[in-house]
From TrEMBL:
<dbReference type="GO" id="GO:0006457">
    <property type="term" value="P:protein folding"/>
</dbReference>
<dbReference type="InterPro" id="IPR016661">
    <property type="entry name" value="PFDN4"/>
</dbReference>
<comment type="function">
    <text>Binds specifically to cytosolic chaperonin (c-CPN) and transfers target proteins to it. Binds to nascent polypeptide chain and promotes folding in an environment in which there are many competing pathways for nonnative proteins.</text>
</comment>
<dbReference type="GO" id="GO:0005737">
    <property type="term" value="C:cytoplasm"/>
</dbReference>
<comment type="subunit">
    <text>Heterohexamer of two PFD-alpha type and four PFD-beta type subunits.</text>
</comment>
<dbReference type="GO" id="GO:0016272">
    <property type="term" value="C:prefoldin complex"/>
</dbReference>
<dbReference type="GO" id="GO:0051082">
    <property type="term" value="F:unfolded protein binding"/>
</dbReference>
<dbReference type="Pfam" id="PF01920">
    <property type="entry name" value="Prefoldin_2"/>
</dbReference>
<keyword id="KW-0143">Chaperone</keyword>
<protein>
    <recommendedName>
        <fullName>Prefoldin subunit 4</fullName>
    </recommendedName>
</protein>
<dbReference type="InterPro" id="IPR002777">
    <property type="entry name" value="PFD_beta-like"/>
</dbReference>
<comment type="similarity">
    <text>Belongs to the prefoldin subunit beta family.</text>
</comment>
Length: 127
């Protein structure tokens, strides 16, 4: 059966729940993408900072950011703190990448079911 724009398909409670679930998953997907992009930017910034420290003496004191404040630490300590930060950010990035894949899989499943019922009367694609 082909659907045209004049066909009226009733949206029952289960359909509405699927649409709502898709919407929530779509929001979650885009938030995870945004967070991972921010993490990539942070990794680049940390790498650049670590490269700049290569020109400094190990016992030289530099300001290091902890939350909203700065403390003075020697370059060697700053390098180890940056390495620790990089490890944590990479771990979070990998975890969120897995979540992105799972979310996308769920979205595609719901999308297939909704398009099968509603055809061109529903648009679930990003613009």
């Amino acid at each position: 059966m082909k659907f045209t724009s004049t066909d009226n398909i009733e949206v029952d409670r289960q359909d509405q729940q699927k649409i709502n679930s898709f919407s929530r998953l779509n929001l979650q997907y885009h938030e995870l993408i945004r967070l991972n992009q921010a993490r990539k930017d942070e990794l680049t910034r940390l790498s650049d900072g670590k490269d700049e420290m290569e020109l400094m003496e190990d016992d030289e004191k530099i300001p290091y950011r902890f939350g909203d404040s700065f403390i003075r630490v020697n370059v060697e300590k700053a390098r180890s703190l940056i390495d620790e930060q990089v490890t944590n950010i990479k771990k979070q990035f990998e975890e969120d990448t897995k979540k992105i894949e799972e979310t996308l899989k769920q979205m595609n499943n719901l999308k297939a079911k909704l398009y099968a019922k509603f055809g061109s009367q529903i648009n679930l694609d990003d613009e």
